Amino acid sequence: MKRIILILFLAFFFKTNAQTENPKYDSTLAESLGGDDYGMKMYILAILKTGTNKTEDKEKLNELFKGHMDNINRLAKDGKLIVAGPLKKNDKNYRGIFILNVKTTEEANALLLTDPAVKEKLFDVEIFEWYGSAALPEYLKSHEKIEKKKH
After folding, report:
1. Residue 39 region, left (φ>0) first, then alpha (ψ -120 to 50), else beta?
2. What is the CA radius of gyration of the chain?
3. 8, burial (CB in 10 Å: exposed 0-12, middle 13-18, buried 19+)
4. CA distance linking residue 81 with residue 1, whole number of Å
5. Nearest Cα to 46, choosing from 1, 113, 145, 143?
6. Which end of the chain is more exposed for a tag (fewer CB within 10 A), N or C?
């Protein structure tokens, strides 16, 4: 009898602590975004930091930063870049981040080299695999609606 009570207790405990199905789950949306059972997926996180190119030629710097912004916009339009933004000045010389919507570090490295500021070593880059919400790309649709000025 004690064994049956213990089994029933354990069954009840595991059932109450088990994960449940989400009633708001949209399988079509999850599939279109590449989400797993938890609505998550892998991305590549790139941290841009001050590079080895120390040029002070203002015209060259302006050209490289214009190319950097143009590349960001192109990659976002292509769905490859989900998040980009500068970091506040810090003691590690980290300058900004990218979250790339790609599957491999090799693909990420190839995309990063399309950025003139990375290619010319104004920025060095550290990359990491990052597991985040598959819905992350969806925020870009809202951002366009609140962006008063375009780069």
Report:
1. left
2. 22
3. exposed
4. 61
5. 113
6. N
pLDDT at 87 over 90: yes
- Look up residue 27 and give its two tokens: 């399988």
**Residue type present at position 114:** T
Instruction: Establish if 108 belongs to a structural domain.
Output: yes
> With contact defined as beta carbons under 8 Å apart, do 47 and 94 qualify?
yes
What's this model's pTM, rounded to 2 decimal places?
0.81
Q: Residue 87 corresponds to which amino acid?
A: L
Residues spanned by the domain of 74: 39-146
- Torsion 141-142-145-150 (CA) sign: negative
The pLDDT value recorded for residue 142 is: 85
Quote the mean pLDDT of the chain.
Answer: 90
Q: Which helix (H) or strand (E) holds 37?
A: none
Q: In the numeric block, which tokens belong to residue 82?
A: 């989900």
Q: How far apart are the first and last CA of the chain?
A: 73
